[in-house]
Amino acid sequence: MNTQLEQALALPIPERIKLVEDIWDSIAAVPDAVKLTDAQMAELERRLEDYRENHDDLIPWETIKAEALARK
Questions:
Q1: What is the C-alpha to C-alpha distance for residues 39 and 46, in angstroms, rounded to an integer?
Q2: Structure confidence by residue, pLDDT tens digits, 58-72
Q3: What are the angstrom distances between the C-alpha of 34 and each of 6, 24, 27?
Q4: What is the 3-state secondary structure (H, E, C) of the chain?
Q5: What pLDDT score does 11 carry?
Q6: Quick one: pLDDT band at residue 56, thresholds 50, 70, 90?
Q7: Is pLDDT above 80 for 41?
Q8: Contact 43, 35 (CB under 8 A)
Q9: Contact predicate 34/27, CB 8 Å
Q10: Alpha-carbon span 8 to 19, nearest angstrom
């Protein structure tokens, strides 16, 4: 295992979560650096088309969240 990974794994969980968030934010800051595969692009197009054709069937996030939290 490399030293950087070992150091990261030695951090307390909250600090590891923060590190992951910071790394993800640095990746999201340059979205053109991550290229989608043809399959990923096709799936996004399929979902967008489905949304356009069936937008009345959507369930608001607030409803989904409330139902999920009610299951606890």
A1: 10
A2: 999 999 999 999 997
A3: 26, 12, 8
A4: CCHHHHHHHHCCHHHHHHHHHHHHHHHHCCHHHCCCCHHHHHHHHHHHHHHHHHHHHCCCHHHHHHHHHHCC
A5: 97
A6: confident
A7: yes
A8: no
A9: yes
A10: 8
